[in-house]
Design goal:
Chain lengths: ~240, ~240
Amino acid sequence: MRFTSEQRLDDGVLEREFTLGEIPGTLWTPGSAPAPAPLILIGHNGGLRTREPRLMARARHSAAEYGYAVAAIDAPGHGDRPRSAGEERIRADLRRAKESGEPIDEILEALIAPLVDRAVPEWQTTLDALLSLPGIGGPVGYSGMTAIGIRLAVVEPRIAAAGFFAGGFVPSALREEARQVTIPLLFLLQWDDEGNDRRLALDLFDAFGSGEKTLHANVGGHTGTPWFEVDDGNRFFDRHLK
Amino acid sequence: MRFTSEQRLDDGVLEREFTLGEIPGTLWTPGSAPAPAPLILIGHNGGLRTREPRLMARARHSAAEYGYAVAAIDAPGHGDRPRSAGEERIRADLRRAKESGEPIDEILEALIAPLVDRAVPEWQTTLDALLSLPGIGGPVGYSGMTAIGIRLAVVEPRIAAAGFFAGGFVPSALREEARQVTIPLLFLLQWDDEGNDRRLALDLFDAFGSGEKTLHANVGGHTGTPWFEVDDGNRFFDRHLK
């Protein structure tokens, strides 16, 4: 893990960009922490700096106000990461289908299922590197994109609790794998998410095998999640990681 | 309003039983409050002292930890309140139908719809009396039984926010009235509530007219609501009543 930039923010949080092999990521650590900070991984599509100001604000808030180390990496083929010819072709198909109003589920299956297959081992490699840093300790939480999170929760025993955002496509195989998820879950749904089937999301919540699972649904569209859910998410992690 | 007993609890909360005409109730006020305490009304079926230890613990917690005045009254025909011959007959019908496994929705309609018609004016009278006490001020929140809460939220402008528990029968007319509810809502659902139709509960959440409404659903049966929802509920009221 090689740090490529470092910035101390107003609230004392240290924000560092890193690369790990070909994986680019960002790490936020609290200004002062007496014990090793528990770690939250933020799963997202990528292009954090240019596309996700709210996600960056959430990460800083979790570090500054709740004392978490928080890390995000760009998913394969996202942000500034190179794309294969195959990926470019599927993305072009997706754009065309959206423009012409055709169904996009099959295209999303072809895009997201292989993305998860590649992203999860990268997250595990990143987790190894993060947990070897001084000042960062377990247990570990995952927060963000559901599809990656399901696989990670199933294969990675170091993940102790997870918050999933329901507003993204979940391939059919991962909807089945959801039954094998047994860690405590907070599932966040935007009730009027224009690009997301509400019934499918509720069925997915039902499918998770976890003995403690909570659904938070808020009125509003895909990007309308209220800020108080950020604090609810941190308190959920406080219950399970501290 | 006549206070019939008074007890100072360990956490400083003053617990007082009262009667207001024929309405019996309990009021909890925080041990020390610099300003008038905002008020939370707890809607329940009745028989608080003998049947609802968890509800009493919640009320004390809201007073002690969050500084609320909290009041509960027994609904007409509940707790020690007298029942009409008609009510006794419907209740006998309900018992028989439950024992023989027959559908009970029509019987519940006949029981709950008139209960709401009688209980809501009683809540309004109680609210007048509570707000005239020293140390209690607006704004006012309602927490508890959905059927009473819908009507109260529609007819009583002093109710500024409400937390509804989805695990109770809601008469069809009140399901329609739900569209007229416009105050901020927290709707609490037990995902595996054996006596409650999940789809009906989700349809009801969808129907509320509120611009800010949040659903919290937890795995488990009717009585399994996790304690952390008590704090979530208080923080919801903090956002809207303080």
